[in-house]
Amino acid sequence: MVRKAPKKDVTEEGLEVGPPKEWAAGIPGVTRSLLTSYAQMGAGRTLLTLARVNQKDGFDCPGCAWPEGDHRSPAEFCENGAKAVAEEATTRRVTRDFFAAHRIGDLAGHTDYWLGQQGRLTEPMYKPEGADHYEPITWERALGVVAEELRALDDPDEAVFYTSGRTSNEAAFVYQLLVRRFGTNNLPDCSNMCHESSGSALTQTLGIGKGTVSLEDLHRADLVFVVGQNPGTNHPRMLSALERAKRNGARIVAVNPLPEAGLLRFKNPQRPSGLAGRGTPLADRFLQIRLNGDLALFKALSRLLLEAEDAAPGTVVDHAFVQEHTHGYEEWAADTRALDWAEVEEATGLDRGAVEETARDVLAAKSVIVCWAMGLTQHRNSVATIREVVNFLLLRGNVGRPGAGVCPVRGHSNVQGDRTMGIYEKPSAAFLDALGGEFGFEPPRHHGLDTVEAIRALRAGQAKVFFAMGGNFVAATPDTEVTEAALRRARLTVQVSTKLNRSHAVCGERALILPTLGRTERDRDRFVTVEDSMGMVHASRGRLRPASPDLLPEVEIVCGLARELFGDDPYVPWKEFETDYDAIRDRIARVVPGFDDFNARVRAPGGFALPNAPRDERRFPTATGLATFTVNPLEVLRVPEGRLLLQTVRSHDQYNTTIYGMDDRYRGVSNGRRVVFVNPDDLAERGLADGETVDLVSEWPDGERRAERFRVIAYPTARGCCAAYFPETNVLVPLDSVAETSNTPTSKSVVVRLVRPE
Ligand SMILES: Nc1nc2c(c(=O)[nH]1)N[C@H]1C(S)=C(S)[C@@H](COP(=O)(O)OP(=O)(O)OC[C@H]3O[C@@H](n4cnc5c(=O)[nH]c(N)nc54)[C@H](O)[C@@H]3O)O[C@H]1N2
Ligand SMILES: Nc1nc2c(c(=O)[nH]1)N[C@H]1C(S)=C(S)[C@@H](COP(=O)(O)OP(=O)(O)OC[C@H]3O[C@@H](n4cnc5c(=O)[nH]c(N)nc54)[C@H](O)[C@@H]3O)O[C@H]1N2
Ligand SMILES: [Mo]
């Protein structure tokens, strides 16, 4: 069987390709963002809105989870943050007339870009069974439909409640409360596709599923690794932090198959000197690694450190730390000493000299931080790879002291906070005890479904109601055709959304669109809170007039549904929560560790830091109370003859499934997205040339999958690897191709062949 992506946007006539850029975030960055904003918002609204991004009395940028420093500049946003704001603050509107004019089937035929460009959703819409149009519905009736379908289920586990990572702490807390009060832990979230591998590896080895560094640590590190991450596009404000670290004397090592613009040179738009010239060189060393080579790299670095220790005992390994705070060292060291260099070179594609020089950087550094994102988390052996990063840091005591530690760089602006609030299909017993104790009911104890398992359950007809708090489930998940068919089987799909997307077009028998406020918008006089990638909690207050008078904030949608579902609930004061976010925060303070005195502390400018045992006390709350060295076998991912390893990445003009525009400026692409970046030598070997059109075909035990008509771009990526954008390539990743332990789809290692279209 061959699965194909739907034949939309297959011809891209205006597509142009130029040379990739070597630097990021200078003048074009700033002017581009203002142009996008003008087009969507108009000039006055643009200035008013952008002036409030990430200010202490403003709203948290919905762009990414990178923290704000203590000394904020008046323009604490970046090009892509501005695009995220413009996308939400747009003056374009999707009205009931729009839905009357477009059949649902027709909407599914449009591109993600077109769908997003239609503007903000304005009122609740309902697709009754058998209908092919959405029609207006009142809020009361809409929530009634959801409650009716939930009550009709035989078992609460037949419902699935997804969350994307923009939901505030307050909304997330009441949402998971509703779900557990209803009786299930089916709370998959975007994390399952994102940093789940980081969470799994870090919880096991360090006892906390989050990073262990603050922004201050990054500024004062001696050596910073940026691995599997493209900050120039996805976390542009991180570049300022890296620049600052460099000014303080840090060296930066970039590890990536692609020479990403932001990693090489940086022009800081917030400093006068940043507006001219070639910018600051950022990475001191660029290791152009093969996809999935990182486990081998970190093992090799550790082995070189052990050799240096053997040559001069007591000078390299932090024995005091290893003895006092860790276990498993001996076994790990023996395994690491036995590493086979030939395998390292095969896996990484790096020559031994480059790895040895990097090890010398490490030896010269007193404090080391490793930052990473999706390049490490979306492979079959991602959890093992991240555990190797931890081993490498533990060896020299680079955890739990200033300037050192692990730094998984989160994606969605509140994805970390949502997890802290209990959006998790595998909640700990301690969390459930606290929740049940506070509200006086017994939450379900058995684990729920994660993202991939939820799709399987929908496919099998075992899950019948699908509720999404934000996001774009159908487009963000793998195996597009399988997933779409699974969602279409649902009795009811419900999307709480700000903007139109594919998940509204590919829906269940009955479907609801519940439009909600975004971060930028006024929520009466209330504020919400978020947690950034480094565990800082702070307030976010929108100021813009809501896109429509018929929008409800997420908290009110959840509480409204709970009141429909539970009537006069003896356990939870939903009515009070609906209006009073302070009341929600008081409960959070009693249930979630670290939030004591939440209401008072979050009102302090800049908010507060959550406790972090490894960072604050060098304490590791693992099963043994010690940080853990783990043995992770090196299995070289060998790609069969004639095939390439494909990674699926973001362009500079997209936010996950939201397509801002059709350009990828730093990589030299304009007016199109169906492109595949391939090393020129790999092209020559296959008799292919830059500019040709190919289909991407992945091969799996259950058949082939094909994404059609991509323009080949000869590009300086690592040999044997190629790259293309998602969501277009999600059709190539089977549902069952997931990372061990974390169950994250393997979106960064897909074996493909490039074939000329028939
Ligand atoms: N503007 C914008 N900002 C965003 C997002 C967005 O879509 N747009 N998305 C947000 C979200 S949810 C997230 S999770 C983050 C994502 O942030 P990133 O992780 O930066 O996003 P990707 O585009 O997936 O880029 C992956 C990077 O890892 C590299 N890479 C891939 N595989 C490997 C590997 O095996 N080894 C190594 N060493 N490198 C590898 C790729 O070449 C690429 O540079 O960004 C967040 N911020
Ligand atoms: N092949 C491949 N697939 C991937 C990835 C990859 O690298 N490669 N990355 C994965 C990652 S890291 C992630 S995080 C997921 C992302 O998966 P999701 O989080 O599900 O997807 P998004 O595209 O971020 O969701 C966009 C939608 O969110 C809604 N929205 C925006 N703001 C708000 C808000 O404030 N409230 C509400 N209720 N709705 C809002 C809008 O309607 C918008 O259309 O995708 C994953 N999929
Ligand atoms: Mo993400």
Number of strands: 32
The portion of residues assigned to helices is 25-40%
CATH topology name of the largest domain, in short, is Rossmann fold
Tell me the β content: 15-25%
The tally of structural domains comes to: 4
Low-confidence stretches: 5-10
Assigned CATH architecture of the largest domain: 3-Layer(aba) Sandwich
Task: Briefly summarize what is shown.
This protein has 758 residues and is an alpha/beta fold. It is built from 32 helices and 32 strands.
Written account of the structure:
With 758 residues, the protein is α/β, with parallel strands linked by helices. The protein folds into four domains: 2-21 and 644-755, Beta Barrel (Barwin-like endoglucanases), CATH 2.40.40.20; 25-89, no CATH class; 93-194 and 414-604, Rossmann fold, CATH 3.40.50.740; 196-409, 3-Layer(aba) Sandwich (Dimethylsulfoxide Reductase, domain 2), CATH 3.40.228. Helices cover 36% and strands 17% of the residues. The chain is built from 32 helices and 32 strands. A six-stranded mixed β-barrel has the order 24-31-28-30-29-32. A six-stranded mixed β-sheet has the order 7-6-19-18-17-8, sandwiched between helices. Helix 2 (43-50) packs across helix 3 (79-89) and helix 14 (294-311) packs parallel to helix 20 (382-395). The longest helix is centred in the middle third of the chain and has 18 residues, at 294-311. The two termini are 17 Å apart. Mean pLDDT is 93; it is low at 5-10. Bound molecules: ligand MGD (2 copies) and molybdenum atom. The site of one ligand MGD has 34 residues, from helix 24 and strand 18.
